[in-house]
Design a protein that fits this description.
Elements (H helix, E strand, L loop, with lengths): L1 H14 L33 H14 L2 E2 L2 H9 L7 E2 L15 E2 H14 L3 H13 L17 H13 L18 H7 L28 H11 L26 H16 L6 E3 L5 E3 L1 H15 L5 H10 L1 H7 L1 H14 L11 H6 L7 E2 L2 H12 L5 H14 L16
Antiparallel strand pairs: 1-6, 2-3, 4-5
Helix pairs in contact: 2-4, 2-13, 4-5, 4-6, 6-8, 8-9, 8-10, 9-10, 10-11, 10-13, 12-13
């Protein structure tokens, strides 16, 4: 979920004819960027600053942590006057113009984070108004305004609408009763159960040039969550159910399509416990981010029990990936923990919350029971919290140099 936004941004840049940097670095070292003090992560935020910041803040909130004020202010300050967000604005004091490439994904992620934190009603209202203004006739959204609708963008926007109290099914192009909703767009991107075992029930990212749909696990995870009216920090299904199965019987509904998508994901992780991504010239590789997304989708659709196999795999194998990939990766794992009722402070022995906090400004406070207990213990032994702050400082030092794994995820256009 994290690097795919960077890849999508690069693809969007290429589409509009602007030269984009290659994913692979050249042999000459590039200068380290001067990063804003409120930003999470230690790599160039050009293509993912708002996205990773939004995920970091939302994940901290989900874990009961109150983010640093300057981190929240940095995100809010990235918004353009019309309500939209770009991936990153190096000079936020300068008004946005036609050269600023705003996008739906950054805007929707920022809405979800700011809505969860509270106190930003004006900003989120302006952002939602902008999102509505660029809704496509089919009811969906593309990465850039006016771009063809895709499952991932439509789903993250649906999550933003829900985060502000709106029902995605009621948000129709131009507000017309006969207009299409986000759910209409997503249902058109779902493969039927009769499409064969390889893609039955899955979602495509977009149709190809001939209008054909190809199963895409990343898009499927996003589509399931979007059709359930949930966002990035989705909650588990209120009632645990039996494993989803794919069926085309009856009327196509958001709930039915979400169940079909969950059935596809369950089948995809059944053998090894993880999803794969195929890089050109290489064999199949585990895709940690997509697997985390699948955990969230499976739990949101059928309950935590349906996501146990990929969850356990992540607990055993994701630490190195998250350390290398940075704040958005830690956030994805926290979302997976949240959706399954797993303690993010003991995720396979790793404290994801502390690791995330170490990639940016120290949070203001932690409201979780475990944090309160630690504070009380510290007070009892007369340390006045010294050991806790020493630990945060140590984590900050340890976090220096953690990179953002740009090449670890593929574009959403690839199955």
């Amino acid at each position: 979920m994290n690097v795919r936004r960077s890849a999508a941004a690069l693809a969007a840049v290429a589409v509009i004819g602007t030269a984009a940097p290659a994913v692979a670095a050249d042999s000459s070292p590039s200068p380290s960027p001067v990063l804003p003090s409120g930003l999470y992560g230690h790599t160039d935020p050009k293509y993912d600053g708002v996205w990773r910041q939004s995920l970091a803040l939302l994940a901290q909130h989900t874990a009961g942590v109150r983010p640093a004020a300057k981190a929240v202010d940095w995100l809010a300050g990235q918004q353009c006057a019309d309500g939209a967000f770009a991936a990153f604005r190096a000079e936020p004091a300068r008004a946005c113009d036609a050269k600023v490439m705003v996008d739906t994904n950054s805007t929707a992620a920022a809405v979800q984070a700011l809505a969860a934190l509270g106190g930003h009603d004006s900003a989120t209202a302006k952002a939602v108004t902008w999102l509505k203004s660029v809704q496509n006739k089919d009811g969906g959204w593309g990465y850039t305004p006016g771009g063809p609708s895709d499952t991932n963008s439509t789903s993250v926007v649906a999550g933003a609408l829900a985060a502000t109290g709106l029902k995605p099914a009621d948000v129709r192009k131009d507000g017309k009763p006969g207009g299409k909703s986000p759910y209409d767009a997503l249902l058109k991107l779902a493969l039927p159960c009769t499409s064969g075992d390889a893609g039955a029930g899955a979602f495509a990212y977009q149709p190809d040039k001939k209008g054909k749909l190809a199963a895409n696990a990343d898009a499927t995870a996003a589509g399931v969550v979007g059709l359930l009216g949930q966002g990035l920090a989705a909650k588990p299904a209120p009632k645990a159910g039996a494993a989803a199965h794919c069926t085309d019987s009856g009327k196509a509904t958001p709930e039915r399509a979400a169940a079909n998508g969950a059935s596809y994901l369950a089948g995809a992780v059944a053998k090894n416990g993880y999803l794969t991504s195929v890089l050109p010239g290489s064999t199949d590789q585990p895709d940690y981010g997509n697997t985390a997304d699948a955990v969230v989708a499976l739990a949101a659709q059928g309950g935590a029990a349906q996501a146990q196999k990929p969850l356990k795999w992540l607990e055993k194998h994701s630490e190195s990936w998250a350390k290398q990939s940075g704040p958005a990766a830690y956030a994805q794992l926290i979302f997976a923990a949240n959706a399954t009722g797993t303690d993010p402070r003991d995720f396979g022995g790793t404290d994801l919350v502390a690791r995330l906090s170490a990639t940016g400004p120290a949070p203001q406070s932690a409201t979780s029971e475990s944090a309160k207990a630690k504070a009380e213990d510290s007070a009892k032994d007369g340390s006045s919290g010294f050991h806790g702050w020493w630990f945060v400082a140590a984590c900050l030092v340890a976090g220096i140099g953690i990179g953002f794994l740009f090449s670890g995820r593929k574009s959403r256009r690839q199955p």
